[in-house]
Amino acid sequence: MPHLKDILGDTVRDRCERARLTPRENEVRKCVLRVFAARGSPPDPKEIADLISGTPEMREKLPMAREIPDMVSLSPEMPDVLQGPPENPDMHSLPPENPDISPIARKRPDGLPLPPEKPDILPKIPAVSDVLPVPSEIEVLQALARLHAADILTLRGGRIVAAYPFSAAETRHLVVFSDGHTAYALCAADALGIHFLLDEDITVRSLCPECGREIVIVLEGGKIQSCDPAGAIEFVKARDRCGCHADACCPDLNFFCGPDHLAQWQECGVHSREGVVFSLEEALEESRSIFKGFLG
Q: Is residue 81 domain-resident?
């Protein structure tokens, strides 16, 4: 059985190691992930700078439901990727919108209510100002540009739209934390990986691409406590296009209700038959190897 990295070419852990991040870049990376986990949406550069430097008002409380503001005006020497082309602020979906995906937040096949609203708190992030100088917003922007270039996170129009394993836009994969707040994962493997990234019990609520049924996986203490339907599997389509993993791989890494649903999905003639099937236990171990200790 091949490993996930053999199918995809590499993982975000591999890319981090190759990038040889500076201490500042690594701290920015971890800050982005912690905020994503705490509220389901990414921080802007000022938030990152304030959180890293330990600004008290930022470390206590911040409204969670606000729009992410535009980036600060960039200096001429800043990389073009941060400025980006003008775009519709409502069009930040990752992966690109697919008409056969029913957005989880608007439609649930079983009619269950959505989880509670996200809490109004930011994570407690250890200050590193006693080790590194307090970062400016420009320094944060430079770090974000480097992380984007290494495919550790994704910027669109100057905004963070994804940071493996999290997505700022709706996907098939909704992760529910024990306190009820939620976050979207980029793919099935990332949804399982959030359990190991944060060392927290979670429930994954994902939609089968074939029938639209919700697949509910409860993870506790590094193990699958329950799965409904019991025969659910993970399918990883062989990579067949270039680009960042969020665009080229994540849309094709999904849970299915079972092998029969995967076969029906493949038989329609639109979708590729090339790929690898993992049992949930196998998928869990693959995600553990990628995300365990990734915030350490």
A: no
The CA distance from 158 to 50, in Å, is 19
User: What is the distance between the terminal CA atoms of the chain, rounded to a whole angstrom?
Assistant: 29
| Distance of alpha carbon 50 from alpha carbon 40, whole angstroms | 19
CATH number of the domain encompassing residue 182: 3.30.450.410
Domain that holds residue 50: 4-67+102-291
Share in percent of the chain as helix, strand, coil (round to 5): 35, 20, 50
> Domain for residue 92, yes or no?
no
Could you read off the pLDDT tens digit of each residue along the chain, which spans 296 residues? 788 888 888 899 999 999 999 999 999 999 999 999 999 999 999 999 999 887 555 544 433 333 333 333 333 334 444 444 334 333 334 444 443 444 444 444 455 545 444 444 455 545 444 455 667 889 999 999 999 999 999 999 889 999 999 999 999 999 999 999 999 999 999 999 999 999 999 999 999 999 999 999 999 999 999 999 999 999 998 765 567 888 878 988 999 999 999 999 988 866 667 889 999 999 999 999 999 999 97
The 3-state DSSP class for residue 120 equals coil
